[in-house]
Structure prediction request, 214 residues.
Amino acid sequence: MSLPPDLLPVHEDAHLLVLDKPAGLLCVPGRGEDKQDCLSSRAQRRWPDALVVHRLDMATSGLVLMARSPAIQRLLGDAFAAGQIWKRYEAIVDGLAPGNEWAVIDAPIAADWPNRPLQKIDPLGKPSVTRWRTLHTQPERNASHLLLEPRTGRTHQLRVHLASVGHPILGDALYGDERVASRAPRLLLHAGVLQFRHPATGAAARFESPTPFV
Prediction:
């Protein structure tokens, strides 16, 4: 069976898959007939045993890990919950973010129920922590290229956290204003690195995907 380019596996073995999701594709089916095409359904046409472990926002591109048995799905889910799976993202954000040292955004996030699917910073929300640093600024376009390491996995965490410190991600129509949303043809956020211990073999595993917009 031939595969569309976005489903060529970064890694495939008897226990798990690592796929490189394009921006604009859902990870799992949504509500309605127009939201049934997604990464998981495409994967299951090629690997019928493929099971979802975690998700990326539809607008975000990059690496997605899938299990190939319920037992491995549980082990990987437990590893995510325990913070044992390390992820790194890259983003282009609005404004000139100062310095190149690692900084931490520690701000709880909760659902903004009247404005779903938006999330918001809320003192009563779930603990949410993001490490970030500036790779370089782009003064000519009033933007910065950031590395991001989420320590928790809240919905829209990176988008909410960066907007909260005055640096919304370019192309973000949810957390940026019209000017920010119009500055890029897509959300400039990419999940570029996944690193974890293989649940079946115990071997260290690291997978990378080049950032498509830098």
